[in-house]
Amino acid sequence: MKVTLKKSYMCDDQYATTGCSLTLHHTEKPEHEDICEYRPYSCPCPGASCKWQGSLEAVMSHLMHAHKSITTLQGEDIVFLATDINLPGAVDWVMMQSCFGHHFMLVLEKQEKYEGHQQFFAIVLLIGTRKQAENFAYRLELNGNRRRLTWEATPRSIHDGVAAAIMNSDCLVFDPAIAHLFADNGNLGINVTISTCCQ
């Protein structure tokens, strides 16, 4: 009788040096490493060709030095003003909101889904971990001409990114016709409210 023994390896996560303490079977490593909170953070700016990666603690410093055009507003209730929403092609508007001791990235992205069909996607990301993001909620609101459009959700961590939110439709989605109902001379004001959640 012939007996074949399979080798089983237990491996430390590749992010052990940055704080991950898990020891996993080698078959579980790739899946975990894709979602590990200790993997390096990429630059969260959508549409930017920035290849920066670093620790969570270094993200805000990177944004302030490499992306100086991003405005930061203080407070839990602000207005995010996207100017010239009629610009052709794909366009991103980005702003930071600082409140509750955290920084949030507000993004309005216009994409051309297919020839002549554009859509707007608005989302809030926390400059923080997924677990920290669960402590907050955000509301995006378009107001004007006796109309109101509101979206409420939990912010995503910048680890997830804008693309994942858009792919899963986990954001405020509207087309140019809706945008024009709320725009004023090609500028769109989005009321953004961040609140804390009781856990």
Please supply descriptive tags for the structure shown above:
199 residues, alpha+beta, 4-stranded antiparallel sheet, globular, ubl conjugation pathway, 7-in-absentia-prot_TRAF-dom, ubiquitin protein ligase activity, zinc
Model description:
With 199 residues, the protein is an alpha+beta fold. It is 18% helix and 41% strand. The protein contains five helices and 14 strands. The protein has helices at residues 29-35, 56-66, 130-133, 161-167, 176-182, and strands spanning 10-12, 23-25, 41-42, 53-54, 71-74, 77-82, 91-99, 102-114, 117-126, 136-144, 147-153, 156-157, 172-174, 188-196. Strands 5, 7, 8, 9, 12 and 13 form a six-stranded mixed sheet that branches. It has a four-stranded antiparallel sheet with strand order 6-14-10-11. Strands 1-2 form a two-stranded antiparallel ribbon. Strand 10 and strand 11 (147-153) form a beta hairpin. The protein is globular, with a radius of gyration of 20 Å. Pfam families: Sina_TRAF, Sina_ZnF. Its EC number is 2.3.2.27. This is E3 ubiquitin-protein ligase. Residues 8-68 form the SIAH-type domain. InterPro entries: 7-in-absentia-prot_TRAF-dom, SINA-like_animal, TRAF-like, Znf_SIAH.
